[in-house]
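User: quick one, fold this
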Amino acid sequence: MTGGASEATDKLIQFVTTFHAKAIPEPARAACKTYLLDSLGVAVAGSTAPWTGDLVALQSQWGKGTDARAWIFGDRLPAPAAAFCNAYQIHNSEFDCIHEAAVVHPMAVTLPALMAVAERNGGVSGSDFLAALTIGVEVACTIGIAATGGMRFFRPATAGAFGAVAAIGRLSGFDEETLRNAMGAVYGQLSGNMQAHTEGSALLAMQIGFNARNAVIACDMAASGITAPRNMLEGEFGYFTLFEESHSFESAVEGLGKSWRITKVAHKPFPSGRATHGVLDAVLELQRVEKFAATDVTRIDALVPPLTYQLVARPPRAGMTPNQARLCIPYVLARALRDGKLGVEDFTAEALADSETFAIANKISVTKEDNSNPSALAPVTIKVALQDGRTLNRTQALIYGNPAKPMSHDAHLEKFRTNWGAGTVSLRPDNADRLIAQIDGIENVTDMREIVDLMVR
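Assistant:
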């Protein structure tokens, strides 16, 4: 198709603009609250990552404004700039939630873009914000699920941009034509290459930021009446043609507003690429049962799906950056084996220079299995050889944090509180409890700027 728009795109746009907020079921609302709080906590921990403060400072070279605030730091910035900085903080520690089947981190782009607009507008109720966020996540995950081939571009950034536009458009009351133009405008600004992932570059998380920024810009353009390509998703040179190998977008759209994809989102219990979590979960469960120490291990062999191999099978090496280490199975597994857990402290300069960690990591081998599902992160199979002659085997079909193997509510809150205390700037400790209460009762929040007030020093 060279003009107009496809029926599936029409349905997606109609869903965003017309679905009644009161029809969003309680399980979807509850899940959205959970991952909203989780993402804000992850952003606090993300403030310690390289370049975070530098990126906030750089914004002053690119324009002035007081629309919205950079979380934790408190600098007032234009809304697109705030969205960029806050999105980077959410994703830079690889600790944010993920929809596994879509291979999309649905909050990373959508939440900071929506929050920046809500803060700029003022007077946005928590109820309206939650509905817009839930619908934005639904769109991002739908576009991710529609992809049926391997990743050529960084899907959390690209699909996330469309989700952010849907959320902002919903919050702003866009009609179908305005939302269509916003979708076309963000398509023209999409970014997110997999080379950044391959090299473990900090630019990977910055690409999340670029798309959050561009979503705000695209919506501002559309609101001012600027037009854009109409068939941005399925056109001859549309998203699914250029960014994905193959797709089943029509069938994915049929699920909009039915199963509510926010309820299928997975927690990330470890601050590393989700593709590392299957091996981490399997080995740590074995360690808890069999009571062996890291020093007892002579060799570990991991058999993983092709996507896991592509994303996180890189070999360990001295001089790794935190980004590279978070995407390296041998490194994260070696750190976790030493303490029975993995935290943000395992990616400091001191941890990355630890010779004992690399001695263990060099005993770990990762092999690609034959799996026809290009988006599969499980099952994984591990074999642990010990000095006492035992060989332990485990196949992990479900990964901890998946909705079918969920983190408990207490574990979710413990993760949030730990992240709250890990920020580069000390936020008021009592603000953590206040933020938990505010998100839990977000329907009673009259202005979302109250939430941001708790997120800055």
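User: anything notable?
Assistant: The chain has a mean pLDDT of 96.
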